[in-house]
Each structure stands twice: as C-alpha cells, then as structure tokens.
Write a structure and sequence with these properties.
270 residues; membrane; MetI-like_sf; transport
C-alpha cells in the first residue's frame, strides 16, 4: 500500500493533531527545568506552572491604580481595531475584486495598480500613517487595511476571472444586466473565496496590529507585550502570546464553520 493512500481513522487523527502541541510543551518544560535548575532566578523560560499562575492573575485581578482587569480591556481594544480593519478590507476588497474580475475597463485601470501596491511593505508606511492620521485608532486601522486589502482584492479578482464564461454568456442571453450578473452569478461564487481570503489575512493583520500598538498605544495586546518586555516578564509575555494565538485560532475556526454552513458546496473538496 502506498503511503499517500493511508488515511488515519478518527482516534489516530486526533492523536496526530495533538502530538505536535504536546511535543512543544514537553520541550519547553524540559528547557525551563534545565534553566531553572541552573539558575532559579532565570526569567527567560518560566516554569509552565508560573505561566499558568500569571494567566490566572491577569484574567481575574484588577489593576492597582484603576481597578480594571487590564487583560480584558487590552483584548477588547485589539479585537475592535482588528475587526474594523478586516471588515473594511473584506468589504472594499469584495467590491473592487468583483469589478476588476468582471469589467475589462476597470481591470485595465486598477489591476496593475493594485499589484504594485501589494508589493509595498505595510510596516514601512507606519511612520507616514502616524504623521498623516495621528497616533490614535485611525492609523492602526488604516495599517491593517493597507496590509490586507491588496491581497484580498487580487485574490477575489482572480477568483472572479475564473467564473466559467458559459455562465456569463447564458446570463447575458437571458437578458441579465451587468448588475444582475454580478449579484446573481459572480457574487455567490466569490463569497466562499472571500471567507478564505479573510482567514489567510488574519495572520498578517495580527502582525500589523501588534506592531502599531507596540509603537503608539496605551491599551491593547501588542502594547502590553512591549510594555512588560523591559522588565523581562516572560510569564506575562507568554500569557499574551498564547492568548493571541488562541484568539486567532478561534477566529479562523469560526470563519471556516461559517463557510461550511453558508456554502457547503464549496467545502466538498476540502
């Protein structure tokens, strides 16, 4: 039997899924134990129990000055910025992507322009954004939009171009206008790809958000990580990193479930 034809059963699939996480945890625990044995005051690799205790403290105890549980305020601030940025990118990207894919005039006008924009490193524009939009919320949201929008536009425009021409011809034969073709033919075929594009954009979006919060913010997950780094508070940093990873995973899982629920026909081959 060829290796490519071997499919794991359900228990084995679950085991193989959890195995890399267990190996990483074991490797970290061993490394932490070695360092703490050599130097009990070592801060680089705190014990897993220390990280757990820190996480419990951060999520339940209020700040000494304000009384607020800053962990949840940081989470809400970051999710609000991320949601606005991704939401704007998805909405604008869908519209422009459909226009580029369906309208040759718009494709000639914008396709290469968007391609060039996608080559600009978004973080290189961060100082310009702070100068133009200030240090408030707007510059952080704009950075996420600039970082994710060109990719979404290019992805959706390519998917629109892949819509079978016979569908477009049949719709025109039946008297459908360009607007009707966009809404009734292209849009349903592109929507599953939009969700996939948003899923793929989550990683870069988190990167841009954390970078912006690290430089200019007084609240947020990225701000807190860079604030405590000067004290070498690795237990706090690891707690926030794990939490960000969990949030990203839940968002990705929710989008995938949404796609399967709304467009099951698009998920049959996955």
């Amino acid at each position: 039997m060829r290796l490519i034809n071997i499919k794991p059963n359900r228990p084995l699939a679950v085991f193989l899924t959890l195995l890399p996480f267990a190996l990483v945890f074991i490797a970290y625990a061993i490394g932490s134990d070695i360092r703490l044995t050599a130097n009990p005051a070592d801060k680089l690799l705190p014990a897993p129990s220390t990280v757990w205790d820190t996480a419990a403290r951060l999520t339940t105890e209020g700040d000494r000055r304000s009384g607020r549980i800053l962990f949840w305020y940081d989470t809400w601030a970051s999710l609000k910025r991320l949601g606005l940025g991704i939401g704007i990118s998805a909405s604008v990207g869908l519209i422009i992507g459909l226009m580029i894919g369906l309208l040759p005039l718009v494709r000639s006008f914008l396709a290469q322009f968007v391609a060039v924009l996608s080559m600009i490193p978004p973080l290189a524009l961060l100082p310009i954004l702070f100068i133009v939009f200030g240090l408030g919320e707007l510059s952080k949201v704009v950075l996420i939009v600039i970082g994710t929008l060109p990719f979404i536009i290019r992805d959706l425009s390519q998917r629109t171009l892949e819509v079978p021409q016979e569908l477009l011809v049949k719709a025109q034969t039946l008297g459908a206008s360009s607007w009707v073709i966009t809404l009734r033919v292209a849009l349903p075929l592109v929507m599953p790809r939009l969700i996939q594009a948003v899923r793929l954009s989550l990683g870069p979006a988190w990167l841009f958000l954390i970078a912006a919060e690290a430089i200019a913010a007084d609240l947020g997950l990225g701000y807190r990580i860079f604030l405590v780094r000067r004290y070498l508070a690795m237990d706090v940093i690891l707690t926030y990193v794990i939490w960000i990873t969990l949030l990203a995973f839940v968002m990705d899982w929710a989008l995938r479930r949404l796609s399967r629920w709304m467009f099951p026909w698009a998920e049959e081959g996955l």
